[in-house]
Every structure is written in structure tokens, then in C-alpha cells.
């Protein structure tokens, strides 16, 4: 009996380590996203999202063929319930892509950073609400601190940081639903992009007919960078989905502040965005919440 128990614990530990590695890789990739999307900022956000969909699907279909995953993909396409759920995740991830690219294009990397700083704590709350993951007092305090930070920023600027909140909620809900859906990461992402493909392709053809499309009209550098959006988009999403299958949502939330930290540093160093006293106070509340949550998570793991 004890041998079986030890084997089960070892398997769970290995699963957790794999999940952490996948999660770290995904969030590091996303951390460098502002650099990539700044390099293609001449492309309007909606057009860029459409290219992300088209080129992501091309890359994913190659992966599906290479891995022999067509039977599983076709099986999901035949299941109305799975298709209905994936339609919801498709809308969420497309919204997240569009809002993020728009934020980068208007020089609001700090807003994207704020959104993804909030996101880990949104994940904790969603885990509590929908997955019955128990929250202890330090986690509730962490959520309270983050909420205070957002409210302070909104009051001082006289406007709610909608871009930040949309980024946090859309990606938080995407991660929650994908975790609950029993579909392989590669298959799920392929079906999501397939569902988006008709709209994206129609829009790109429309731009081409109007003569306003950027692709193949603005030099070889962009003609290389735009198709790269498929690989840039698909790989971290696949890593994220794989991590989500192996980790608790709260653990994913703990890893997730790697990305906004990188966005924050890029915004105030490489991109020269203004970091005001109001930003500082707001971010300090959110960072305090993250530190409190992280210390609590560490102590819980150590027992």
C-alpha cells in the first residue's frame, strides 16, 4: 500500500514540475511580446489580430499533421458541446489579443502590465468561485490589496483602466474554461483558430481588395515578421494550456506575474513610458498583494 502511495506522490510531483516548466516558458515568451508587437505597430490592431489567426492556424495544422492528431481534432469538431465551449474560449482569446495589440499600438504597455499584474489574483478568485479552490485569509487580503490599487488608479486618473481590466478578465476566464474542458491543448487551440479563421480571412481579403492591407506592401522586414505571428502566438498558448492541465489555477496565478513584470520593465526602460506617482502607489498595492500571496503559497508548499 505504501509503495503505491509513494508512486502516486512521485507521479504527482513530476506532473507539478512539468507544469511549472511549461508555465515558466509560456510567461517568459509572453513577457517579450511588447518587443515583437512594437516592431509591427504599423499594422492596425484588427489587421494584426487577423494575421495572428491565419498564420497561427497554418502553424498549428503543420503541428497537428506532424503529431498525427487529426483523429482527435475531428472528434472534437463532431462534439457540439465541446464546440460550444471552444466558441466561448475563442471569443475570449480573440478579445484578449485585440485589446493587447491595441494597448501596445497606442503606447500603453504600462496598462497591459497592470492588466497582467491583476490577472494572477483574478485567477485565484475564479478558482475559488468556479473550482472550489479554498482561499485562506492571506489570499483574501491579497485580492483586497489588488482591488485597492486598481480603484486608486481609477479615482486619481478619473477613469477606470478598462484596457487593464479587459486583459485580466478575458485571459482569466480563458484559462479557467480551458482548464475545465477535457481537450488536448494542441487540438483545442487548433479548433479555436479554425473557428476564427473565416472572419479573419474575410477581413484580410477585404483589406486586399481595398488596397489598404499592410502585408506584402511595406517591405521585406514586415513580410517576415507578420507570418511569424503564427509561431509567436501558438507556442506560448500551447505551453500555457499544457501547464493548466497539470497545475492548480492558483499556482498558475502565482507564476503569471512574470509576464507583467517584464512588460513593466520594458515600458519604463526600453519604451520610455511615463511612470507617475499615481502609478507607483497603485502598483505598490498590487505588488504587496502579490508578495503576500506568494509568501503564503511558499509556506503552504513547505508545509
Automatic annotation (TrEMBL):
Predominant subcellular localization, coarse grouping: membrane
Transmembrane segments: 20-37, 49-70, 82-107, 113-131, 138-155, 161-177, 186-204, 224-242, 254-272, 278-298
InterPro entries to which the protein is assigned, alphabetical: EamA_dom, EmrE-like, RarD
Protein name (Swiss-Prot/TrEMBL): EamA family transporter RarD
UniProt topology in membrane: Multi-pass membrane protein
One Pfam family per UniProt: EamA
Organism of derivation: Geomonas terrae
Subcellular location field: Cell membrane
One Gene Ontology cellular component: plasma membrane
Keyword Transmembrane in record: yes
Keyword set, alphabetical order: Cell membrane, Membrane, Transmembrane, Transmembrane helix, Transport
Domain EamA: 19-153
Top-level taxon of the source organism: Bacteria
Family: Belongs to the EamA transporter family.
Coiled-coil portions: none
Amino acid at each position: 500500500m505504501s509503495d503505491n502511495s509513494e508512486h502516486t506522490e512521485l507521479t504527482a510531483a513530476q506532473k507539478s514540475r512539468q507544469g511549472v516548466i511549461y508555465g515558466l516558458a509560456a510567461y517568459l515568451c509572453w513577457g517579450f511580446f511588447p518587443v515583437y508587437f512594437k516592431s509591427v505597430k504599423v499594422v492596425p490592431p484588427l489587421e494584426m489580430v487577423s494575421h495572428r489567426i491565419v498564420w497561427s492556424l497554418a502553424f498549428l495544422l503543420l503541428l497537428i499533421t506532424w503529431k498525427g492528431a487529426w483523429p482527435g481534432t475531428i472528434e472534437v469538431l463532431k462534439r457540439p458541446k465541446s464546440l460550444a465551449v471552444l466558441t466561448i474560449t475563442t471569443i475570449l482569446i480573440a478579445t484578449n489579443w485585440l485589446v493587447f495589440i491595441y494597448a501596445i499600438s497606442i503606447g500603453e504597455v504600462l496598462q497591459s502590465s497592470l492588466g497582467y499584474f491583476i490577472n494572477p489574483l483574478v485567477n485565484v478568485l475564479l478558482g475559488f468561485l468556479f473550482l472550489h479552490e479554498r482561499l485562506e485569509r492571506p489570499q483574501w487580503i491579497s485580492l483586497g490589496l489588488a482591488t485597492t490599487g486598481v480603484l486608486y488608479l481609477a479615482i486619481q486618473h478619473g477613469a477606470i483602466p478598462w484596457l487593464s481590466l479587459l486583459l485580466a478578465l478575458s485571459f482569466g476566464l480563458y484559462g479557467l474554461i480551458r482548464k475545465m474542458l477535457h481537450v488536448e491543448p494542441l487540438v483545442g487551440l487548433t479548433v479555436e483558430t479554425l473557428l476564427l479563421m473565416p472572419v479573419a480571412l474575410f477581413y484580410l481579403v477585404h483589406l486586399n481588395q481595398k488596397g489598404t492591407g499592410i502585408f506584402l506592401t511595406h517591405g521585406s522586414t514586415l513580410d517576415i515578421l507578420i507570418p511569424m505571428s503564427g509561431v509567436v502566438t501558438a507556442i506560448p498558448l500551447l505551453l500555457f494550456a499544457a501547464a493548466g492541465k497539470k497545475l492548480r489555477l492558483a499556482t498558475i496565478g502565482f507564476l503569471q506575474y512574470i509576464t507583467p513584470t517584464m512588460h513593466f520593465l520594458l515600458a519604463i526602460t526600453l519604451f520610455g513610458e511615463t511612470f507617475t506617482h499615481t502609478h507607483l502607489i497603485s502598483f505598490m498595492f498590487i505588488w504587496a498583494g502579490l508578495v503576500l500571496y506568494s509568501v503564503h503559497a511558499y509556506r503552504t508548499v513547505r508545509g
